[in-house]
Amino acid sequence: MIVQTKRSTEKLIKQDTLLSSSESQVINPEIYFDENKPPENLTQIRDNTIEFIKKNKQAGRPIVLVTSGGTTVPLENNTVRFIDNFSAGTRGASSTEEFLKKGYGVIFLHRKHSLQPFNRHYTVPENGFLDFFNIDESGRIQIKGKYEEVVRNDILTFTNVISTGKLYMPYFTTLSDYLFILREVTLLMAPMNQDAMFYLAAAVSDFFIPAGEMVEHKIQSSDGDLILKMNQVPKFLRPLVNSWAPKSFVVSFKVSAYVYFNTTFESLVGMIMAMLD
Fold first, then answer.
1. Which of 48, 190, 258, 260 is the most exposed place for a label (fewest CB within 10 A)?
2. pLDDT above 60: residue 101
């Protein structure tokens, strides 16, 4: 990526080695991991995942990794500004509930503060969160009658899947967090072969700024207009399918701006294959 301001062209960041998205060649996915920083909690997530896999294998449960929510792309190493891929996380959270009903152990890798399974039902009540409650004559807080049954059922279900080790919910914020955790968890699950499934519903950024090419501190508005040229994110679906977990079942989603009602099956297959390259 190149960061350029109108009155400060001397602050170009490694302009001679970077190209705009229209000019650049996508880097090898493995090079991405060499040139970017893993999240600080990656070791903890690895340890928790190993324990989760062990417990669910002993219980005879297949495991699915569900990814959910959008990734951010920081503009500075000490991040003040970032570009966000918006996603509430509805598909990932609701799908996790269904996988749990079907007997899967679920690793729910989600964007921090995005919708979560079971909790997602209580984010936007009619008049805000407090609309769920009232206060009785003794001053005790109660759940309103119209919500009571569904809240009770969700509390019981959520408590059960957590206490029995059926649900593990690590989170990410940045694109780099997501990709490092995705690779780590995938490689740990891969030995399960057909008993491992990957359901990739996260909204992953298409462009990013390599960590070594970001400015360290806040980009100053006093320098004038800001011009951003960003690198294209490598396609990680192909190595996941071919190398990381070649014997597992993988589901991925692609948001498109086009409508394909009159498109032939062969054309759709061609479009899908192009997305993998």
1. 258
2. yes
